[in-house]
């Protein structure tokens, strides 16, 4: 007697739309830098703490919105706020608030350690993906500062975060890293699209 096997689910379509919208989220970086810079240049622990927290708050909100529900605001925004504040305090102090290319790359690496760990804890993924994200973020932050410095941005002004060129680079690479998760949220085509799916409110 032969049992009828259910048809295999079709593979999820490549998430071009989700990846594109995520990439547009790079605009959150310059906005976060502008608002984070209201407290002045990063030249002491207090300015690093407050500027980093404001920058993280804006960045976390922007990334959460650009993820189309993948990154839950109630988890991602606080994680990014706390991680960015702690990371900038650590990174800026470690390099003595200097702004050479090497110093900013190191600052970015150190800033990304608390930030990566905090965001990894808020990431809706298994342990393997979370560990990978925690490792990736410091490297991305170092790269972001390197790109921004090399294109000639006036990094001597003591910004809380790298500029648009670094932001585009970081956002594209982060999106590729998130691709397995973005695929989960891609609506299948054909008969599978007719199947009801559970929805989760965007604010959770």
Keywords summarizing the entry:
disordered C terminus; mainly alpha; 204 residues; transmembrane
Q: What does this 3D model show about the protein?
A:
The protein has helices at 16-24, 28-36, 45-66, 73-94, 101-122, 127-150, 164-177, 179-184. It is mainly α and 204 residues long. It has one domain (16-183). The chain crosses the membrane at residues 21-42, 48-71, 76-98, 104-124, 131-153, 159-182. Keywords: Membrane, Transmembrane, Transmembrane helix.
Describe this structure in a few short sentences:
With 204 residues, this protein is an all-alpha fold.
Give the number of DSSP strands. 0
Span between termini = 47 Å
Q: Describe the main β-sheet briefly.
A: none
What number of domains? 1
Helix/strand/pairing category: mainly alpha
Helical fraction equals 55-70%
- Using only C-alpha atoms, the radius of gyration works out to 19 Å
Mean pLDDT: 86
Give the topology string: H per helix, E per strand.
HHHHHHHH
Shape: globular
Annotation field: number of helices: 8
The poorly predicted ranges are 185-204
DSSP strand (E) fraction? under 5%
Write the layout of secondary structure elements.
Layout: H1 16-24, H2 28-36, H3 45-66, H4 73-94, H5 101-122, H6 127-150, H7 164-177, H8 179-184
């Amino acid at each position: 007697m032969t049992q009828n096997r259910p048809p295999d689910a079709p593979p999820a379509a490549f998430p071009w739309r989700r990846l594109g919208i995520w990439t547009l989220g790079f605009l959150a970086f310059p906005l976060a830098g502008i608002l984070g810079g209201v407290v002045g240049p990063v030249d002491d622990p207090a300015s690093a703490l407050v500027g980093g927290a404001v920058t993280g708050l804006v960045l976390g909100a922007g990334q959460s919105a650009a993820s189309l529900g993948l990154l839950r605001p109630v988890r991602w925004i606080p994680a990014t706020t706390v991680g960015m504040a702690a990371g900038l305090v650590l990174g800026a102090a470690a390099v003595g608030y200097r702004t050479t290319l090497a110093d900013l790359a190191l600052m970015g690496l150190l800033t990304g350690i608390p930030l990566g760990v905090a965001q990894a804890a808020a990431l809706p993924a298994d342990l393997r993906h979370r560990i990978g994200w925690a490792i990736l973020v410091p490297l991305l932050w170092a790269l972001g500062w390197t790109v921004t410095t090399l294109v000639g941005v006036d990094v001597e002004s003591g910004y809380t975060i790298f500029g648009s060129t670094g932001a585009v680079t970081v956002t594209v690479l982060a999106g590729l890293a998130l691709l397995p998760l973005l695929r989960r949220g891609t609506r299948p085509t054909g008969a599978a699209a007719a199947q009801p799916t559970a929805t989760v409110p965007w604010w959770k």
